[in-house]
Amino acid sequence: MSVRTGRRVRTTVFSVVVAAGITATVCAAGPASAREAAPVSHRATQQAMDAAVRDGVPGVVGIAQRDGRTWSGDSGVADLRTGRERQPEDRYRVGSITKTFVATVVLQLEAEGRLSLDDTVEHWLPGVVRGNGHDGTKITLRQLLNHTSGIYNYTQDQALGQRIFSTEFLQHRYDTYTPRQLVDIAMAHAPNFEPGASWRYSNTNFVLAGMVIEKATGHSYATEIERRVLRPLHLRSTTVPGTDSRMPRPSGRAYSKLSTESTGRTYDVTALNPSMAGSAGEMVSNSADLNRFYRALLTGELLPQRQLKEMTTTVLMDPGAPDARYGLGLQMNKLPCGTEVWGHGGGIHGSSSEALTTKDGRHSLAFNFNGDWSGDSAAVVLAEFCGTAPAAKSAKPVKPVVKTVEPVALVK
To answer: Coil, helix or strand for 230?
Structure first.
């Protein structure tokens, strides 16, 4: 989900750069030079991870797989209080990467003849998308999944944003939201455009898609993801937590400034009720599971060929950026080196993630920043898939980063 603090709203891998307690001063783990050196083929990736930590990200962890070989990299720390390093097995909140899982289930249901992408939202959810110019009779399920519906993005609502993106989050982190409540927030605003007239990222689209799954199957979208995707692929580190605010182990902490600024206090925002994201972004996973999922998806393990073709049929996101296109819960980027990667990014409080693979599934990368106010995720992607080392900001050697975090009272 694009649940971000105000400074960055996640919509694409590259169109928006992404990168959040306890009183303590700790030294972050040193870069790769202090550990085993990365193989030549991933050296630029490790350098980009180290650069993100220099830029202020508490810690980075990721796994790349290429032609059957696996490499894991990390930099910085998982916990600013204890100094624990990040580990390849660490789980983290994946935000909008959830959208690809949701779209996969919708397309499986289409393959089974239980719904059609050309069905209207009104057909499945009578009266839900209505008001202030929204009209569910004119919006199809396909338009939900590729963000051409025009439906207002509920996370841009000013009142909700104040509660969940500012320091008010600390008092509201355990609030529960139903999908209908989130949609109703969107319905209080005018749509962005007429259905099909343009493209604009909206978390409301995928909250509605989750509601459609429940209506079509009689089960929650979480149950269907678990039954149709997680179990068949043995994604044992991936969960759909619902209203559970806890993080499964192993996992580190997540940090945010809870501000539009990149300076000031750093808050531990690990514990939160992810119902604020719902089927637009509530899932938890790790890098190995995400690589496995996207490889399986793009190589046809999860969808028949016709539905996979539908998913990878893309629309232009921004006329000024022709190399970034969006399918059905799936984004394609053509990198400057000519490589095409498919996947999704995800941001939620204190967590910024990317999961990408080439279409043939031979080269995959999934990684996470455990801070949401700094860091260049695009640099990590370009390093891995194009071998492009990040531009040096200083000729000085990398030193451990000293961090001070402010106390936050966590409600148990």
So the answer is: helix
- As annotated, the active-site residues are 96
Place of tokens 């169109």: 15
Q: Give the chain's domains with CATH numbers.
A: 24-405 (3.40.710.10)
pTM: 0.88
Distance, in Å, from the CA atom of 189 to the CA atom of 183, rounded to the nearest integer, reads 10
H or E stretch at 211: helix 203-217
The structure tokens listed for 94 are 């994946």
pLDDT of residue 392: 62
Question: Token pair for residue 371?
Answer: 């801070």
CA neighbours closer than 13 Å in the CB half-sphere of residue 385: 27
How far apart CA 86 and CA 40 sit, in angstroms, is 22
Mean pLDDT score, 155-160: 97
Closest CA to 130 of 120, 140, 122: 122
3-state secondary structure of 371: strand
Token pair belonging to 61: 């962890």
Is the C-alpha dihedral spanning 291, 297, 298, 300 positive or negative?
A: positive
75 closest CA partner among 65, 66, 88 = 88
pLDDT tens digits, one per residue of 361-390: 999 999 999 999 999 999 999 999 999 877
pLDDT tens for residues 94-150? 999 999 999 999 999 999 999 999 999 999 999 999 999 999 999 999 999 999 999
